């Protein structure tokens, strides 16, 4: 049109691509991150569901993962309580055919705080454990509490009497049977008729006290003149205190040292002093070959194998497991015969026959305590529950130091 000039606009310069930054970049990054997290969560959730335990439903062996709590480090011990449990776990692992990564070990888990124990257990659960094994009765409260909160995990704790209907129970054994047999051995060996016994807890603890009494009954059956002297450390795992207790008993004239405590220190002290001993938990002859007459041992693998198989085949129940001499859960090690007088093997065989073949309960009839009371009655016997849960007295041939 006239009067209008056409403007030469030319070509538009290309738009410059600027790097993403600021709010736009943040928004895209959050979307990508969210999608990634969701995918990982979905995969983890799928994996965890596959590994969850459910009552009555078999769990693939490859999905089984066992978390084990130890009072001390069993790999640094050559004998003792945690070492015996570890031997049982290894035996189970071999027989079942589990990979190393299917066993989660937590060592030096002390029992001063339930919350601290629960924290350790939860570490195992977060790592995929569907079975938790508490190798100390002091872990019972934590196992019981977390079993309620995690119904897809099996919890078992040694000793005690607590359980629920679905996923928490306890296991133990008639160790007093083996204690009685070891008392027979000690009663035959002593020359001074003074036998020492190092215990972790006093007579208020029935688990310990029933063992001391069974040992005392075994001693009396072959040597009515012998007495048992008890020294208490008041701690389950106390290496220094166990040494000191054994030393005090030896200095008082005891020439056989038995024990219900965690380390082989009492047996090592017995050998140093040139006296004899009866070990506990595992075979302590290797620690003190010139002193140990025999050891009362736990074969925990008997139960751990049964536990693992029951989870795998779906037959797990919370019925407590209580083994004994009959299934090998408890036993005494072969006699150190060069250290024993003639006839010891025959006397031990007769005592074993009474328990395994003739129904001898050990805690039978009217039993006199060391403070003059009478427990039980002629023709009667204490039940398992009374033996491990209600004995707060010492037998008549026991002296408390």
Order of strands, main sheet, comes to 12-10-9-8-6-7-15
Fourth CATH level, the homologous superfamily of the largest domain: Response regulator
Q: What is the CATH architecture descriptor of the largest domain?
A: 3-Layer(aba) Sandwich
Alpha carbon gyration radius:
30 Å
Provide the succession of SSEs: HEHEHEHEEHEHEHEHEEHEEHEEHE
The CATH C-level class name of the largest domain: Alpha Beta
- Average pLDDT confidence is 90
Principal-axis shape: globular
What's the number of structural domains? 2
The proportion of residues forming helix, as a percent range, comes to: 25-40%
**CATH level-3 fold name of the largest domain:** Rossmann fold
**Main β-sheet, in a few words?**
7 strands, mixed
Low-confidence stretches: 1-11, 41-47
State the helix count.
11
State the total count of DSSP E strands: 15
Separation, N- and C-terminal Cα atoms: 125 Å
Strand content: 15-25%
Structural class: alpha/beta
Question: Care to give the gist of this entry?
Answer:
The protein has 401 residues and is an alpha/beta fold. The protein has helices at residues 22-51, 81-96, 114-126, 140-149, 175-189, 206-222, 239-251, 265-273, 301-313, 344-356, 384-389; strands at 66-69, 103-106, 131-134, 154-158, 168-173, 194-199, 227-232, 256-260, 276-281, 292-298, 321-323, 330-332, 367-368, 374-375, 398-400.
């Amino acid at each position: 049109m006239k009067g209008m000039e056409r403007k030469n606009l030319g070509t538009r310069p290309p738009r410059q691509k600027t790097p993403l930054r600021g709010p736009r970049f943040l928004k895209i990054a959050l979307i990508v991150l969210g999608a990634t997290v969701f995918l990982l969560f979905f995969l983890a959730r799928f994996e965890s569901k596959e590994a969850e335990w459910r009552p009555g439903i078999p769990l693939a062996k490859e999905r089984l993962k066992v978390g084990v709590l130890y009072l001390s480090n069993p790999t640094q011990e050559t004998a003792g309580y945690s070492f015996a449990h570890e031997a049982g776990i290894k035996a189970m692992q071999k027989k079942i055919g589990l990979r190393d990564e299917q066993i989660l070990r937590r060592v030096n888990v002390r029992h001063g705080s339930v919350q601290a124990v629960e924290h350790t257990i939860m570490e195992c659960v977060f790592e995929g454990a569907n079975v938790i094994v508490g190798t100390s009765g002091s872990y019972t409260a934590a196992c019981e509490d977390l079993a309620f909160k995690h119904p897809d995990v099996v919890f078992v704790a040694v000793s005690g009497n607590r359980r629920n209907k679905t996923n928490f129970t306890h296991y133990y054994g008639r160790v007093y049977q083996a204690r009685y047999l070891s008392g027979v051995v000690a009663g035959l060996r002593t020359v001074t008729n003074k036998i020492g016994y190092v215990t972790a807890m006093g007579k208020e603890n029935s688990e310990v006290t029933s063992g001391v009494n069974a040992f005392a009954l075994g001693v009396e059956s072959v040597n009515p003149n012998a007495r048992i002297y008890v020294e208490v450390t008041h701690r389950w795992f106390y290496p220094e205190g166990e040494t000191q207790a054994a030393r005090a008993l030896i200095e008082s004239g005891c020439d056989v040292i038995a024990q219900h405590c965690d380390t082989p220190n009492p047996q090592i002290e017995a050998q140093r002093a040139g006296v004899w001993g009866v070990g506990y938990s595992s075979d302590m002859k290797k620690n003190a070959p010139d002193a140990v007459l025999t050891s009362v041992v736990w074969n925990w693998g008997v139960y751990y194998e049964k536990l693992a198989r029951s989870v795998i085949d779906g037959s797990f129940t919370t019925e407590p497991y209580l083994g004994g001499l009959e299934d090998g859960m408890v036993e005494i090690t072969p006699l150190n015969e060069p250290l024993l007088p003639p006839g010891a093997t025959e006397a031990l065989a007769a005592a074993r026959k009474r328990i395994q073949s003739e129904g001898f309960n050990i805690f039978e009839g009217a039993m006199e305590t060391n403070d003059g009371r009478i427990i039980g009655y002629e023709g009667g016997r204490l039940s398992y529950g009374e033996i491990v849960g209600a004995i707060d007295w010492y037998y008549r041939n026991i002296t408390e130091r």
